[in-house]
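DM from R.C. (forwarded with permission)

"hey, sorry to bug you on a friday — could you get me a structure for this? deadline for the figure draft is monday and I only need the backbone to look sensible"
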Amino acid sequence: MKPTIAIIGAGLSGLSLANGLKEHASVTIFEKAGGVGGRMSTRYADNFYFDHGAQFFTARSKSFQRFLKPFIEKQIVQEWHPKIVTLEVGKKAYKRDWFEPHYVASSKMNMLCKTLSKEADVRLNVQIAKLTRELDGWFLSDSYQEERYGPFDWVVSSAPAPQTQVLFPQDFAEHELIENKKMQGCYSLMLGFPEDLKLNWNAAKIKNSPIGWIAVNSSKPLRDSGYSLLVQTTNEWAESNIETDQNTVQALLVEELGTLLQRNISDAVYKNLHRWRYANTVVDEDLENNGYCMDEKMQLAACGDWCIGSHVESAYLSGCALSLALKKNIKWK
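My reply, with the result:
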């Protein structure tokens, strides 16, 4: 009989972990959202599409490059070649260069995770709020439906560090490490326009502004949709405004964008704002781990990009590292 494992979160780390364990365990994934992907997400409204989380990803490790190869061959993942510039209020824009391939999933950023999840047992719209250990294993409680799931031999959280910290018991072996992981927020402003703004670039890195990044989202591969801009704040600005009224935040960002672009953007026919509370990990070189957290005695573990850094590749590597550790070091019943 295969051991049973519950994974909380259907982002890339959780799905990579599930993929690595599929031949060795019976895995169930619980995702609070209505779809998979985590921060590799896409929002769509009318004929506009917005990759409002991760904007792109790189592949610097051989492991991640091998993983991506079949998806690139099937065009589920494609390289993005935008004309990219640096913008600053009062100064002339100048061209930037990318010195390595930058990828996106097509036709939406969540397509990579959607493909990975096709053969997995994913329970959507289930927010796990409590873990309870009983004689026959772990049980998970859903805050929405007040249902219980289990028993499971192991529970793995791929949620952000602050959420994992709250979920796991205080005597979890690496609780202090998780507690010391600092994460920062980010706002994503989504704007849809009735026609092309005819900017002479597709993406821009912003200096000395609450806004850190602007992308013509509709310029990405296979985005056959209405003209859309995706605007993201700096993590520092978001942190200092994380509890600010959301309408105020949106108005401030729209005004700042107009100043940066030196044009009136009031003709946007779609406007929306998304707040990511946990978008970036502050890397502390003194906090070292193996790319995951694990307590063999309690049969609890955690993975996620925050275990390594803040990138899409970090999420994949963390999930794979935990998969190998579980297969190698755990004495299955």
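R.C.: lifesaver. The chain has two domains: 1-36+117-181+284-333, 43-109+182-283.
me: no worries. The radius of gyration is 21 Å.
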